[in-house]
Amino acid sequence: MLKTIGSSVIFAIVAMLTFGAQAQAAVDCSTEVGAVAGDTAAAAAAIEAGGDCAVAILAELAVIDADLAASTVINIIGTNPEVVEAAVLQLGASASAMIVAVAETADANTIVSVLSAVESAGLDGAVLTSIDVAVEGAIASREDLSDEDISSITAVIVDTVAFTEPASSSPS
Description:
The chain is mainly alpha-helical. The chain has one domain. Helices cover 79% and strands 0% of the residues.
């Protein structure tokens, strides 16, 4: 009986520590996001530094300054694509402005990387389609992209659209 009670107490302590740590992590991210919310340069630096709160800060930065969020995405996509994926998933449709800003300014390889990260983030098909349409519009006006660059970008878009659209029924 005493052994069972001891095991229960240990289990309860472990559970409290585990859930307490998770609650503390949420508070820490709120504090960290709040600390950099008024300073977009500090937010970008915190995201690039990585850490547990990078996703929350990137999501907040995307709302405050989509262009700076986009340049931050460009800086971290090679080293932390999972941060971009998680932020896009957290932002959903709101991520479109950040991604369009990337499409308007970044090189073709970065655009492809960002679109690939977006595709793997698990967003709803309608959200992906709206992002793809916006990106197509953004790259159409880019004179600095070669035909080959545009083809590589649209290949990702076509793959995304083909992956997310339901199979059409045969005409009757």
